Amino acid sequence: MTDETQIAAAPSRDKQREARAIALGVAGWLVPGLGHALQKMWGRALAFLLIVGVLVFVGAGMRGNLFTSESGDAFAALGYLADLGTGSFYWLAKYIEVGGPDVSHAYGDYGTRFLAAAGVLNLLAALHAYEAARGRKA
Amino acid sequence: MKFHLSHLQAMLLFALLVSIAFGFLSRRRPLDRAKYIVWSLLLFLLFGIGIGWAMYPFSR
What we know:
heterodimer, A: mainly alpha, B: mainly alpha, 77% helix, 0% strand
């Protein structure tokens, strides 16, 4: 291969790598830990699956407020974004929380924080998987 | 399914899980990771309990 063809092939490889990194980031968002599992980072994958899973399970069990897209104010919209961060576990939380939220008790309010923290941590993990796929973190 | 955790139990569980997540996110070697998790957990508890006591005079 000549130098010119090598130079021409480099941007194509970069694009492929970027597309793969984005796909892994999205996979990590949809299923906590999947972005790392696909890169054979088993410890991190298991840790994020369990941590996000336990936070969602306990948060929904404490009847925390799971925000929806129909929420009215800016804080509720931010809460919805944070809850959506859990990816597919958002629907798992809805399935667990059959009685609906109850923030009239303190534990319901703690549950709301647990759910939001699960989403934000999962977004951080997905971003980490994306960066790792780009070779910027390990 | 219902969990009725007290404030302290909820804080302990939250601090532990978030500390583990931070450790796995920011450190690669197991020993560094364990040290980071322990430090993060201790700081969470120190600040949580410290802020709780700092608010106590204004609670009633």
